[in-house]
Amino acid sequence: MNLYSLLRRREESGDPIRIGVIGAGKFSTMFLSQVRLTPGMRIAGIAELDPEKARQACLRTGWPSDSLIKGDSIEEVNDAVRCGKTLVTEDARNLIQAELDVIVEITGVPEAGTRHAWEALEAGKHVVMVNVEADALLGPVLARKAEEVGRIYTLAYGDQPALIAEQVDWARAVGLEVVCAGKGTRYQPEYRYSTPETVWGHYGFTEEQVASGDYNAKMFNSFLDGTKSAIEMCAVCNACDLTPQEQGLQFPPAGVDELPEILRPREEGGILERSGTVEVVASERRDGSPVDRDLRWGVYVVFRAPTDYVKRCFAEYGMRTDSSGRYSSLYRPYHLIGLELGISVASAVLRKEPTGVSRAFTADVAAAAKRDLRPGEVLDGEGGYTVYGRLVPARRSIKEDLLPMGLTGGARMVRPVSKDALLTYDDVSLDETTLAFRLRKEMEASARRNSR
C-alpha cells in the first residue's frame, strides 16, 4: 500500500516512469485520461496505425494539444522524453527500442501483441499486457521470457483477470482454500452465435450510441458470444494454477448472495465439477429476467473454511455463506479497466512485481464453429461470424490437437466442421511463419514432453 509514495518519490527526483503505449482504443483512452494526472509517470510515446486516432484520444481526455508531437524515429521518441512531450507515431518498433521503462500493449490482436511483447522484453522493457488475447495464447511463454531477461511481464490491473488474481492471492495468503474464482457478465445461450451484425440488437444500443465511435462491433460481440469470458478465464487459470471444468464455462445465473451456494462442488450441493476452478456468472436468468444483486461488472472468489473455528468466524463476522456455513465469498462489484491500469505500471517498475502473471499452462481457449463451416472459408477470429471460443483444460487441448482461438484470424478451412464442433489444426491452413505460431508450437511441444 505504498505505490503512491513511491510514485511521488519518482516525481520529486525528476525521474518519472517512462511509458510507451501501443494501441489507442477505449482501454487505452481510459488509461491516457488518468496517467497525465498521476505523479511519477510520463507517456513518452503512443504507437497507433492511425496516429490521428491516438491524438484525438489524448485531446478528448484533456491533454493540451501542444504536449503532443509527431515523429517516427527512435531519436524523436527519446527527444520527447527529455522535453516532457508525448510523441505520436505509427511505428511501434521504434517506440519499443527507445529509452523507456515499460511498454503497455493494448492492441487486442494476438499476433501483434506477441510480437510487441517479445521485442519489448528483448529490448529490456517491462511489459504490461492488456492484450489478454495474446496472454491466453502464449502467456506462459512470455512470462518465461521475462524471467530470462530479468523483466516483469504482467496482466493489466483494472481488467478482470488481474483483479481476480489479486483476490485469489488474498484468499491463499490468509490460508483459505480457493474453490472458484471468476467474474460476471450478461449471457444467454443464443448469444454464442451472435455476429457483428446482430450484436447491437442484443445489447439494445441505439444507432446514435454506435455512431459515437467508441463501439467496436467485433470486440463487443466477443463479450456477448462468450469468447472474451473464455479468454479471460484462461488467463486466470494460467496465472492462479486453477483448472477449467471439463464442460467449460456454464454461465449460471447468480447474484452475489448466491455465490457460495451455487459455486461449490456438486457433492456439496453446488454445480462445480471440482474445487479449484473458474466460472462466469450470468446477470440475467435464462428467461431474460434480471438476477437480484447481479455481478455483471464485477469479480469474485469463493473460498472454503479449512476448520470449524474459521467456519464459526464466518458467522460471527456476518459473512454470507452457503447452507453449510463453510463456503463464503469476497467480491468486487465493478472494474474500471484503463482507469486503474497505472497500478500495473507502478507495480512492475517500482516493486518489480506483476499484478497477475501466467505461471503454468493449465487452460486453453479452443475455437468452436458458430455455424457449419466449409473448405475454403476464411476464419475471422474473435467476435466474428465464424467461430467462438470455449474454455478447455490445456491437457485436452494438447491431446486433441485443438485449434487455439488466438490463431483463427485469417485461417483457411480445409475440411468441413459442423456447428458447435471444436476445430483442430488439421481442419485449417495457417500462416506458419508468424512468431505467434512458432512460439505456440514450442509451448505445446514442451507441454507434451512434460506430460509423459
Tags for this model:
452 residues; alpha/beta; Rossmann fold; Dihydrodipicolinate Reductase, domain 2; Type Iii Antifreeze Protein Isoform Hplc 12; 3 domains; 7-stranded parallel β-sheet; globular
Tell me what the structure shows.
The chain has 452 residues and is an alpha/beta fold. It folds into three domains: 3-157 and 341-351, Rossmann fold (3-Layer(aba) Sandwich), CATH 3.40.50; 161-187 and 226-334, Dihydrodipicolinate Reductase, domain 2 (2-Layer Sandwich); 363-451, Antifreeze-like/N-acetylneuraminic acid synthase C-terminal domain (Type Iii Antifreeze Protein Isoform Hplc 12, Alpha-Beta Complex). It contains 17 helices and 15 strands. Strand 5, helix 6 and strand 6 form a beta-alpha-beta unit. It is globular.
